[in-house]
């Protein structure tokens, strides 16, 4: 059916173009022979093709443009005729003899253009006559195109100030009156299209009207270009007349388009000075008009105008732009009960952007807008409209982008209330935006009160708002979110140690509500932030000894002990063990032996009861040995207890090579250069001998199971330990022991069952080169190494 109509339309258009071209041909021939009578005859016949009612506006436009091109040529002919002495007044009367009204009016407009140009009559009189004559065509499409033609031929001949057609003192008003009349009549014709034809074709008619809207809108553009339209005339005549027509037409499409046109074509300064009039029309529009987009466009223009120059801001204050816009938005939302949440939030977001440009210092205005938004959202629950959600994110992001300081956002009492209406996913996104803003601008949150407000704001990332949804989040996204929170915790800082202690208590309170899944991400940064404070307190105590201090390292270590214990619910024993050891080292620096011992005890309990994986055990025992080696706070008894435990754990590892390496690592616990009371050569020797026995056992086991001797790399590693302690002056390590170990390695490497290993060979060769280097060095060291044969 639709295809058939389209085909018919093509045929009608083709027939119309053919008829038009044929008559245009004869018209040209008449023009060439200066035959005015025939030229008028064929031009009238040519224009009769425009009388059709069969074509859609789109197809009619094609036909009209062909006729328009021919009329331009005819106009040139009329101009030449007047130059040759033909009376323009007679010509103006002559064309009115055309038989049909539509061709007659097109010809009249064409001659009228030449008439005005000739200046034989005032432009305003000719234009008034033409505008009245055009009332004769009331068919919407034909009438619109006719008046569009009138507007086109007259736009450069208006009696404007400074124009060559300028008239008396009211000349600008004459030009405005002509354009306004044409605009009013065209709008009436355009609106009438909506009410012609059956209801089932409503969608088609709306599409056709949309295609024709620019014909009407061009009148407003012409109005904006008239030089004589100053602010006073715009305020008193132009805007009221235009708005009267917009409101009275009671047509949804026309009202939306024309309001948008008014905002776009007239200057920003005019809008600012006539804001009350313009906004007063908004509640009078049809409820179905998309007024939110119109007002958003107005506020965007005014925002850009305010941002363009600081000089215009006083005008905004003078006219009380914010108050007027705020009241207008309230009235529009109140008048349109069925306005979707998305529409209301869009208006508030636009008003907020405007406010941030014009009144950046008025936080009360910003909070007032957020409060109005909360009021509109109250009782709605979590939003499930993606458009509304997107606008709320824009609303909440605007203050962050403007002030680049979360402190400012935290002062807005309604800010968190707006966030509560976001669904859980978007709440997290917004929380992330807040954290990214803090990190990007390196904002320092320096009071416990602000930290409390901030963590309440980003609670979507700190804890599960809805436990049912916790498994839906992608693992990678979850890690990224929690890493952001971890970075945020590191940025909470103040020089005031008492306030910093309060911040630590606040952070701890919030992160412990995060559940087992979040703790591995949030506890480590919290612990290191607390340890940073411990070190600051330690340095303060050294400087101001004897004074009463509100926060002490001991208090912080108690908090840390309780917090790390919370990780047992996850469980992540390896992470907890690392944190216990970090705290033990910090307690060591603070000379708190009982505290350090307690942290080591907890680490040992974790190792014994929770860490069962062999690889994790190896890593953990080396961490324990490394930390224990750096401890100087322990007395003999505590040191012996912890060292004994460590060596015991080392010898109980699953794999012999791991046992061997852990045991020889323990040798460092008995010889510390910086502490003379921690130099026990016998126990160093004991550890190395035990390591050597384990290495031998590993070799024998490899020989028994694989039929070939295992790697000799363990012997080479032990040889390096011998050399290290020999240099340090451990008297129990003699030249003979070193020499026998070198021979053992050589023997093992040259054995029949040994598989060549380039890396091991290179390691041993490097060790021998080191011995030779020390021998060649000269001095005391060379004397020590001289007896060793390589």
From TrEMBL:
The question of whether Cytoplasm is a record keyword is answered with: yes
InterPro entries registered for this protein in UniProt:
ARM-type_fold (IPR016024), Vps35 (IPR005378), Vps35_C (IPR042491)
Write down the Gene3D superfamilies for this protein, in alphabetical order: Vacuolar protein sorting-associated protein 35, helical subcomplex Vps35-C
SUPFAM superfamilies noted in UniProt: ARM repeat
Q: How does it sit in the membrane?
A: Peripheral membrane protein
Q: Which keywords, in A-to-Z order, does the entry hold?
A: Cytoplasm, Endosome, Golgi apparatus, Membrane, Protein transport, Transport
Q: Name one GO biological process term.
A: protein transport
Name the major location.
cytoplasm
Q: Where in the cell is it found?
A: Cytoplasm; Endosome membrane; Golgi apparatus, trans-Golgi network membrane; Prevacuolar compartment membrane
Question: One GO CC annotation, please?
Answer: endosome membrane
Question: Into which family does the record put it?
Answer: Belongs to the VPS35 family.
Describe the task this protein carries out. Answer: Plays a role in vesicular protein sorting.
This chain belongs to the protein called Vacuolar protein sorting-associated protein 35
The organism that produces this protein has a lineage beginning with: Eukaryota, Viridiplantae, Streptophyta, Embryophyta, Tracheophyta
